[in-house]
């Protein structure tokens, strides 16, 4: 790490349906890697909250994080996070969930369109990718307008599968005004934009969003960036954070942010 400050604000434990390691294993690995602040942000998908057991996951995740916070308090700062998937598909339930616990940090994300599968599970053969992306960006506008999160996760997530895994080219110029509208809304509502570094270790090979979008966020008045590895494994903790911080710096941001009790805390990129 070329920077002194090393934070990772997007990570998953076994309390995520696709997580692999206990919170203790994740904490030990994070300490080993020299990460100073980590946010655990297990998945809670609001469109299948009770149906797929996310209510239980949310409860277990919260309890584990509170326990780990105390257990490792002399070695690492732990933020009580949550990755709220599709919160606008049941906004009232999402708001009551956020208010029901003392979260530090809420990530807002979209992994699937309404009543469809996650973009990672779709079969793209024969699908109208342009229509799919149009609907995706419309959903992101609704999410940004709702804005009861702290950071906006992995903007351009479907490209990880459409471009990265299925090699279907996408002309992003078609979505420039949609993206501008989203970035504008985030800036005006004082919300953070996440640089999700998981794409760097996947076929797409770039962060989500990429540097051009981070630069555009700065141009449109965006103030806060968060950086997260989206690690589901101990070995991926902190992965790409350095590149993510460099992208933020190149785009004109001097700091990244973490959140304590839903309040932004500036972490200088030094
Ligand atoms: Zn996600
Ligand atoms: Zn995630």
Characterise the protein shown here.
There is one protein chain. With 270 residues, this protein is of the alpha/beta class. The protein has a single domain (9-268), classed as Metal-dependent hydrolases (TIM Barrel). The chain is 35% helix and 19% strand. The chain contains eight helices and ten strands. The chain has helices at residues 23-32, 54-71, 91-100, 129-146, 159-165, 176-188, 211-219, 241-250; strands at residues 7-11, 37-40, 43-45, 77-85, 105-109, 151-152, 192-196, 224-228, 255-260, 263-268. Strands 1, 2, 3, 4, 5, 6, 7 and 8 form an eight-stranded parallel beta sheet that branches. Strands 9-10 form a two-stranded antiparallel ribbon. Strand 5 (105-109), helix 4 (129-146) and strand 6 form a beta-alpha-beta unit. Helix 4 (129-146) runs parallel beside helix 6. The longest helix is centred in the first third of the chain and has 18 residues, at 54-71. It starts with 6 loop residues before the first strand and ends with a strand. It binds zinc ion (2 copies).
Task: Note the main attributes of this structure.
alpha/beta, TIM Barrel, two-stranded antiparallel ribbon, binds zinc ion, eight-stranded parallel β-sheet, 270 residues
Secondary structure elements and pairings:
Layout: E1 7-11, H1 23-32, E2 37-40, E3 43-45, H2 54-71, E4 77-85, H3 91-100, E5 105-109, H4 129-146, E6 151-152, H5 159-165, H6 176-188, E7 192-196, H7 211-219, E8 224-228, H8 241-250, E9 255-260, E10 263-268
Parallel strand pairs: 1-2, 2-4, 3-4, 4-5, 5-6, 6-7, 7-8
Antiparallel strand pairs: 9-10
Bound molecules: zinc ion (2 copies).
